[in-house]
Amino acid sequence: MPNMVTPGSWIKPFPQGIYVEPGDFWIDPSAPVDRALVTHGHADHARSGHKAVMATSGTLAIMAVRYGEAGVTQVADYGTQQRVGDVDVRFVPAGHVLGSAQIVLEHQGERVVVSGDYKRRPDPTCAPFEPVPCDIFVTEATFGLPVFRHPDTVDEIAKALATLADNPDRCVLIGAYALGKAQRVIMELRAAGHDAPIYLHGAMQKLCDLYREFGCDLGDLRPVTAQNKADLRGAIILCPPSALNDRWARALPDPVTAMASGWMRIRQRARQRNVELPLILSDHADWDELTQTIRQVDPGEVWITHGREDALLRWCALHQRRARALDLVGREDEDD
């Protein structure tokens, strides 16, 4: 790929998102715009009010569930190149949640990959991350510190099932983000042999139904509200993290409070949420996966956002890679 004098001069990072000038569109803007390309359905990337949206079918369906009907929508199938203004655009899997994508931009011989949020671990609910060599790689850094090395997913799920077996008169209440994390936890439990009904807080139902529509076999799911308290003993229940310690949870049969999140690596975070069973399970890349990905796509320059930029900037400097931090607003950790 050619060595351009000013790499990426045609893409403009602003606090409210990335503007692609020769295509006249924004990527993951935090405020309504005329044309938005959206990497995935989490609320810090997918907002309502855009006049036109291009995204994968999964992301568009998630946005419809969350925000209702949008303006003009255009489906971006994985791997299919489309022309937007003077820019060639294609979406490739990011491995984050259902429909999540990296957006590959090509203009005047230069390739930029805006990765959105991504992970490298296998996930039965979404297509795996696809590395794309590029001139500029825009990467998140949610867990961009060497302390964050996520354990094996199978081992974390085994901890939940062992706790359930050891406490037959209690329930295991797992706090999990309603989009992506909850469905992944369910699928991992099923893969580990847990075929019993899994009970859901009402806030989980719509997105679980959507995942079923996209082919995810979540098994027997039942609403908590329809059950007698005694029926929930020895059961696994999923709820949003915000519901872990509220009045709703106190009505359950002596719950073992768990939370599925990469932040459970930090003991203080678990204590703050009164989490008895931390499950270190993230939908973001850990430190080793971030650095592995940069090596793999081998960009001429790395742009870093969404998290702990300083350590990754330092790593890039030590490995003779040009890098800069972007100051994008509204990027949240999503209890991940």
TrEMBL record:
Molecular function in Gene Ontology: RNA endonuclease activity
Concerning InterPro entries, the annotation shows: MBL, RibonucZ/Hydroxyglut_hydro, Xnuc_lig_assoc
- What domain of life is recorded for the organism? Bacteria
| Name of the molecule in the record | Putative mRNA 3-end processing factor
